[in-house]
Structures are given as structure tokens and as C-alpha cells.
Amino acid sequence: MTALEDRVADFLVRHPVATTPDRSLREARFDEGLAFPHFAVGHGGLGLSPSSSAVVEQLFLGAGAQDWSGRNVIGLGMAAPTIHQYGTPEQLSLLRPLFSGEEIWCQLFSEPDAGSDLASVRTRASLDGSTWMVSGQKVWTTLGHVARRGLLLARSDPSSGRHRGLTYFLLDMRLPGVDVQPLRQITGEAEFNEVFLDEVRVPDSARLGGAGEGWRVAMTTLMNERVAIPAVADESGHDPIGRAVAAHRASSGGSDAGARRDQLMKLWSRSEVSRLNGLRAFAAASGGEPGPEGSVGKLEMAELNKAIFEFVVACRGPHGMLIDNYDMTRPDSAAVHGGADDAKAFLRTRANSIEGGTSEILRTVLAERVLGLPKEPAPTALM
Ligand SMILES: Cc1cc2nc3c(=O)[nH]c(=O)nc-3n(C[C@H](O)[C@H](O)[C@H](O)COP(=O)(O)OP(=O)(O)OC[C@H]3O[C@@H](n4cnc5c(N)ncnc54)[C@H](O)[C@@H]3O)c2cc1C
């Protein structure tokens, strides 16, 4: 047993999962540095190596602890590393309720005319004394309806175009003027929302990083997003490839059985490569400087998930096209791979190649920044 495994085992003796309320268990984990072990001591960590985080999480899940990765996906995967890197002491104190599940986070980046082109953000923040007045509209805000706080990117200097003149805030979603409205997805559910900001008075103490330096802070969030969205599985055969294996087993032989088995093996191989890359990316990102593995993993996860659920639905034959329940619900958890319903998972995974950076954008990022290929011509250069 490693020293870290010993530490977790000792913790679990003092706080048995079966008898400790989940909130208390997570608060104790934070206090003992077993929340984000690679973070600094006092902020939920132990200052350990980046890969320690995945190890500790797997140990707790293995012991039967609840999995919060979907319920606070933005908090744990994106807000925490960004706050840890840029936060003031007051802002760092938000990490404990974030980890415990007391406060869910959302991400207020995208706007109707600023998705892939995030530098076009138009939500306006103007400083009035020690308070910022924020007005604008955000869209596709995952879990905005349950979020207590949001990562907000706004334009604070309209005279500085594009990347300059943006400021980043940790927004209290209960402030007057914040209005969250559901957006229904192709699955029938509304995991995400539109958020209208109407003269919201945000204290300057909620600013993360310098005024006008929001782009740099946002890049930290986005690089972590690309690692957070693909689930990191420590074992082969995990979902979603496990679902493909189950669907294959359940489907009858038929004349195309050989071809289908061949297809399954190709998906399995891609899944294994993706899983191992995910572990590598998680380890790299946890160090605070996510690398290209994150973008590779996000791109492959999106395309692979879509292929897996096409296979699953095909295995089910004509029944695969049927959906039993199309009720409008507002889930309290983001299901990147879709839920238990195969047909809904097929529909939900269509969004994987849009959320967290589209596949087209990620291919450009990889071409230019990793392979060093010539830059894409700017749209104006094409005219
Ligand atoms: C399920 C889901 C959850 C989401 N959750 C959140 C959230 O919580 N918070 C948040 O802020 N946002 C969220 N988003 C928004 C997401 O980040 C954006 O949808 C995404 O960045 C794409 O932006 P867009 O929708 O404006 O599409 P556009 O940027 O308008 O793109 C449209 C199409 O054009 C292509 N395209 C655009 N520019 C280029 C280019 N330069 N080169 C080649 N092709 C290009 C794109 O790849 C895409 O196919 C979510 C989206 C989804 C689907």
C-alpha cells in the first residue's frame, strides 16, 4: 500500500462511508486534504503530485462514496482549478462548499453570438464605485437552475476589442437581476438554460483575476473543461463502451453478426486508447497546466461516444428508435453520456461534439498548436 492509500484507508476507518452523511464525509475529506490532493494544503489538498487526485477519487468511489462528477461537473472540473490558480483568500474559501456539494456551480461563458468565438462576448460589466453593473444574456448554461454560483465572463472595456477588455467574475446566482430560464434539449429534458442578467450589481470582490484580464483566466477554465468532460475511467469496459458490449450480447445473431463483432472490437480498441489518454490528460491537467492531451481526449471522446451509441441503437434494431418518456424535466445532474435509456443516450451524445469546444474547433487547435501547421485563414482574409 502506498502512503496515500494508507491515508485514505485510515480516513475511511474514522469516517465510514456507510454511516457518515455524504456532506459531512466530503467536508472532512476537504479538511484533511483528500478533496483535491494536488491543491495546496489548507485548500482541500496536500500539495501532492497531479496524478494523486484520480487515485484518491477512485479509492473513495471504490469504497462506495457518492459520485459528484455529474452533479457538480463545472464546480469540480472547472471552477475549482481556476479559483485555486487565481483566487484571493476570500475566494479560496469557496472551495469547501464547492467540494462538499453545498454549492453547485455553472459556467456563464456562451452567448447567442459568442460560442466558438468566445472573444465576441458582449455581456457588459461597468464599474460603479466598488460594484460592477452587469447586463447581458448567456445561453446553454448547464445546471444553471440548481447553481448557487457561476463563472461569468463579461466585457468590461468595450473600447478594447476581442480578447482584451474582458473580466471574469464569480457570480452569486441569487443576486437580484439574475433570471434563469430552461432550454429543452433533443432528449426532452432541460439540463441547460438561458440566463438573463439585468443590471446585476456584482461586488468587485467577486472579480477573479485583474480587470481586463478575463481572457487569461477563462483559458484556464476551458483547458480544464476539456479534461473534465470526458469521464476518467480506471478500468476497461466502463460505460459507455460497456453499454456497447451489453447491447451486442443482447442482440440476436443474424447475418451481420460477424461484421457487428468486428465493429465492436474497433470501438473497444478506440475506447481503451481514449481511456488511457484520459488518465494522462487528467494527471497533466491536475498540475494546473492542462496540456494537449485534454484537447485530444475531448475530441476523441465526442466522436467515440457518438459512434458507440449509434452501434448500441443499431443492435436494438427497430426498437432502438423508440423513446418511452419525453417528459420535460430539469435534471440536477449533467449526463454527458446520456442516462440509462439507450435511445436518449444516442440523442444526448450528439451534443458531445458541441459542448466544451466543437470538434471542428478542437481539430484546428490541435493542428495549429500541437502539430504546428499553418494557421487557418481569418474569415476576412477569405473575402
Ligand atoms: C450540452 C451542452 C452544454 C453546454 N453547456 C454550456 C455551459 O454550461 N456554459 C457555457 O457557457 N456554454 C455551454 N455550452 C455551449 C458550448 O460551449 C457552445 O455551444 C460551443 O462552444 C459552440 O458554440 P455555438 O453553439 O455558438 O456554435 P457556433 O460557434 O456558432 O458554431 C456553429 C458551427 O460552426 C462551426 N464553427 C464555428 N467556428 C468555426 C471555425 N472557426 N472553424 C471551423 N468551424 C467553425 C462549429 O464547429 C459548429 O459546427 C453547452 C453546449 C451544449 C451542446
Can you offer a commentary on this structure?
The chain is α+β, with helices and mostly antiparallel strands and 383 residues long. It is 41% helix and 13% strand. The chain is built from 13 helices and seven strands. It has helices at residues 3-14, 22-31, 52-62, 73-86, 89-92, 95-100, 214-228, 241-250, 257-285, 292-315, 342-348, 359-370, 379-382; strands at 105-108, 124-128, 131-139, 149-155, 166-172, 178-183, 192-203. The strands form two sheets. Strands 2-3-7-6 form a four-stranded antiparallel beta sheet, with no helix packed on it. It has a three-stranded mixed beta sheet with strand order 1-4-5. Helix 7 crosses helix 9 (257-285) and helix 8 (241-250) packs antiparallel against helix 9 (257-285). It is globular. The mean pLDDT is 91. The structure holds flavin-adenine dinucleotide. The site of flavin-adenine dinucleotide has 18 residues, from strand 1 and helix 12.
Please outline the helices and strands.
Elements (H helix, E strand, L loop, with lengths): L2 H12 L7 H10 L20 H11 L10 H14 L2 H4 L2 H6 L4 E4 L15 E5 L2 E9 L9 E7 L10 E7 L5 E6 L8 E12 L10 H15 L12 H10 L6 H29 L6 H24 L26 H7 L10 H12 L8 H4 L1
The structure holds flavin-adenine dinucleotide (FAD).
Flavin-adenine dinucleotide (FAD) binds next to strand 1 and helix 12.
Distance between the termini: 63 Å
Distinct compounds present: flavin-adenine dinucleotide
Q: What's the Cα radius of gyration?
A: 22 Å
Mean pLDDT: 91
How many H/I helical runs? 13
List how many beta strands DSSP finds.
7
**So what's the overall shape?**
globular
Strand order of the largest sheet: 2-3-7-6
**Roughly what fraction of the amino acids lie in strands?**
5-15%
Summarize the biggest pleated sheet. Answer: 4 strands, antiparallel
